[in-house]
Write a structure and sequence with these properties.
The protein is an alpha+beta fold and 143 residues long. The chain has a domain at 45-138. Helix content is 50%, strand content 27%. The chain has 2 helices and 6 strands, in the order H-E-E-E-E-H-E-E. The chain has helices at residues 3-66, 120-126; strands at 73-83, 86-94, 99-107, 112-115, 128-130, 136-138. The protein has a 4-stranded antiparallel β-sheet, with helices on one face. A two-stranded antiparallel ribbon has the order 5-6. The longest helix is centred in the N-terminal third of the chain and has 64 residues, at 3-66. The protein is globular. The relative contact order is 0.10.
Length: 143
């Protein structure tokens, strides 16, 4: 191999090695960040349910006791992100006539849960209608 040929080989290996290091660094930085973002979103979603539960679990429990031993399938808590640190949280069940339950708008930053029934505009926004004074029903295809 000539002197010129060996220099070309060394330069090529150096570039490949540097590219390998750069790729390794990029992968190590991006993957954990993506996981962190996902983890933070899940924690925020869980926090929205905790906030709703704090204010509503006793009301829900008392209402469910009045239902007696009916054939009810509990669906439970769900949280759907609707804005920056804002979630539409629901606790629902199905008694054979469709899914119904309680619906709250939760501001995670302010740690506040607002009964959607309290503001008619929000009922309309989320497609919620009252079934009785305690519970509501979400219409199919609601946002």
């Amino acid at each position: 191999m000539t002197q010129k040929g060996s220099k070309t080989l060394i330069r090529t290996l150096t570039v490949v090695a540097l590219a390998g290091v750069a790729v390794a660094v990029v992968v190590l930085v991006i993957v954990p960040r993506a996981r962190q973002v996902k983890r933070e979103a899940l924690l925020e979603q869980e926090r929205s349910i905790e906030i709703a539960e704090l204010g509503w679990k006793w009301k829900i429990r008392d209402y469910m006791k009045t239902r007696g031993e009916e054939d009810i399938r509990i669906i439970g808590w769900k949280a759907e992100k609707v804005g920056e640190q804002l979630y539409m949280v629901s606790y629902t069940f199905d008694d054979g006539s469709g899914e119904k339950g309680w619906f709250m708008e939760v501001n995670v930053a302010g740690a506040a849960a607002l009964n959607i029934f309290a503001v008619p505009e929000r009922m309309e926004r989320y497609g919620i209608s009252k079934v009785d004074e305690h519970i509501g029903k979400r219409s199919a295809g609601s946002p």
